[in-house]
Recover the amino acids of this structure.
C-alpha cells in the first residue's frame, strides 16, 4: 500500500502509448536524450575553454632578506606597555 508496483508502471506505460502513440513517445525520448547530451557537452566545453590563471607562488621570484641586520621595529609598531 502506498507504493507503485511493476503492474502500476506497466499500466501507466500502456496508457501513455495509447494516448501519445508509439512514434511520439520515441521522439520525445530521443529529444530528451539529445538535450542531455548537449548539456553534458556544454559542461565539459566550459571547463576546457576557460583560461586558468598562473599560480602566483610559482610565478613570483622569492623575496630576498633585508641586508640590514640592525633593523628595529618603529615605535608605532611596538606594543604599548
Amino acid at each position: 500500500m502506498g507504493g507503485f508496483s511493476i503492474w502500476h508502471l506497466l499500466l501507466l506505460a500502456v496508457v501513455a502509448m495509447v494516448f501519445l502513440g508509439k512514434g511520439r513517445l520515441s521522439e520525445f525520448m530521443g529529444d530528451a536524450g539529445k538535450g542531455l547530451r548537449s548539456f553534458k557537452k556544454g559542461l565539459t566545453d566550459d571547463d576546457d575553454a576557460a583560461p586558468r590563471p598562473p599560480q602566483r607562488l610559482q610565478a613570483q621570484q622569492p623575496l630576498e632578506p633585508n641586508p640590514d641586520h640592525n633593523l628595529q621595529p618603529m615605535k608605532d609598531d611596538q606594543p604599548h606597555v
Remarks:
- The longest helix spans residues 22-49.
